Amino acid sequence: MKRAWIWLLIALPMVVVIGFFTLMLNDPGQRETRRAPTRTSGEALIGGPFTLVDQSGQTVTDADFHGRAMLIYFGYTYCPDVCPFSLQIMAAALDQLDPELRARIQPILITIDPERDTVEQLAQYVASPAFPDGLIGLTGTPEQIATVTTAYRVGFRRSDGETADDYTVDHTSIIYLMDSEGRFVDVFAHGADPQAMADRLQEFLEEEGSSS
Ligand code: NI
C-alpha cells in the first residue's frame, strides 16, 4: 500500500506535465492562449545533465550553473513570435524581483534549432534589450540538443518551408524553474502572467535562501 502511494506521488505530476505537453503539440491555437502557471510537485523526472556551448563559444555544463537557480526556455532565434513573447514575459517577471533575489537566478535560452542557431546568431539574439538581462544562449550539436530536450521533455517538430533554410519549428513553450543544484522546481505555461511568475520566483528564492 505504501509503495502504491509513492508511485502515485511520482506518477501524478508526470501525467499532468506530459498531458499538458501533448495538448500544446496537438493544438497549436492553445499555445497563444493565456493560462495560469501550471504547478507540479513531487519528484518529477525533468531535467538532467547537459553539455552545450554558450553564446561566447564556451563549452558549459549544467554543473557550471549550480549555485544559482536556472530559468530555462527552449526555443530558437528565427521564431517569429512565440519565443520573443515568452522571453519578454520572462524579462518582465525578473524585473519585478528585488536585486538580491534577481542575482540568484540565471535566465537561459536553449535552442531547438542548432543548425541555424550558431554561437554568433545566439550572441546577437540574447543581447536584445527586450529580453532578460544576462540571458545566456546555449546551442550545441544536434546530438547534444537531443539529449537536453529529451531530459526536459521538450516537444518540437520542424515544418518545412520553401527552401532548405526556410523553415519554422513548432515547439512547446514552457519556462522551467530549476533550483541551484539543477533540480526541477516548477514550470510556467506559455503566456503566464509576469506578476504571477515573479511571485512564484520570489517565493521559491526566499524558501531556498532560508533553507541553505
Ligand atoms: Ni518559438
Question: What report would you give on this structure?
Answer:
A hairpin with a 4-residue loop joins β1 and β2. About 5% of the residues have low confidence. The radius of gyration is 17 Å and the shape is globular. The protein contains six helices and nine strands; from the N terminus they run αβββααβαβαββββα. The strands form two sheets. The chain has a seven-stranded mixed sheet. A two-stranded antiparallel ribbon has the order 6-7. The chain binds nickel (II) ion. The site of nickel (II) ion (NI) has 6 residues, from α2.
List keywords for this structure.
212 residues, two-stranded antiparallel sheet, 2 domains, alpha+beta, Glutaredoxin, 37% helix, seven-stranded mixed sheet, globular
Strand content: 15-25%
The whole-number mean of residue pLDDT values reads: 86
Radius of gyration: 17 Å
Class computed from helices, strands and strand pairing? alpha+beta
Topology-level CATH name of the largest domain: Glutaredoxin
Q: Work out the helicity level.
A: 25-40%
Q: In total, how many beta strands?
A: 9
Ligands in the structure?
nickel (II) ion
Strand order of the largest sheet: 2-1-5-4-3-8-9
CATH architecture of the largest domain: 3-Layer(aba) Sandwich
Helix-strand topology string = HEEEHHEHEHEEEEH
Relevant CATH superfamily of the largest domain? Glutaredoxin
Main sheet overview: 7 strands, mixed
* CATH class label of the largest domain: Alpha Beta
Structure annotation, total helices: 6
The geometry reads as globular
Q: What is the number of independent domains?
A: 2
Measured distance between first and last alpha carbons = 34 Å
Low-confidence stretches: 26-36
